[in-house]
């Protein structure tokens, strides 16, 4: 459901929006804003995707995987937590 929202863009952005409408690229101010927000959403999604790609590359280049046992790992974590608490 569409709802009205009032936004103060300032003179520069208002003039830019009006120029896009006058050029025929867009019919209304709302179209310009919707397209702008869609592009922003895409840019943010691409940024998150790139961060995941970077993490994947880091993981792949970190060397051969080693086996680990969940119980042994949790025991070490708990022991480390206790040691930190004792040093306070």
Properties at a glance:
single chain; 88 residues; mainly alpha; 3 helices; 0% strand; elongated
Written description of the protein model:
Helix content is 70%, strand content 0%. The chain is mainly α and 88 residues long. It has a domain at 9-63. The longest helix is centred in the middle third of the chain and has 32 residues, at 29-60. The protein is elongated, with a radius of gyration of 26 Å. The mean pLDDT is 92.
**Ranges with pLDDT <50 over ≥5 residues?**
none
Largest β-sheet summary: none
- Counted beta strands: 0
Strand proportion, as a percent range, falls in under 5%
Shape: elongated
| Class based on secondary structure composition and strand pairing | mainly alpha
How much helix is in the residues? over 70%
Elements, N to C (H/E):
HHH
Rounded radius of gyration (Å): 26 Å
The overall average pLDDT, rounded, is 92
Give the terminus-to-terminus CA distance: 55 Å
Helix count, per DSSP? 3
Organism: Salmonella enterica (Salmonella choleraesuis)
Family: Belongs to the ParD antitoxin family.
GO biological process, one term: regulation of DNA-templated transcription
Pfam families: ParD_antitoxin
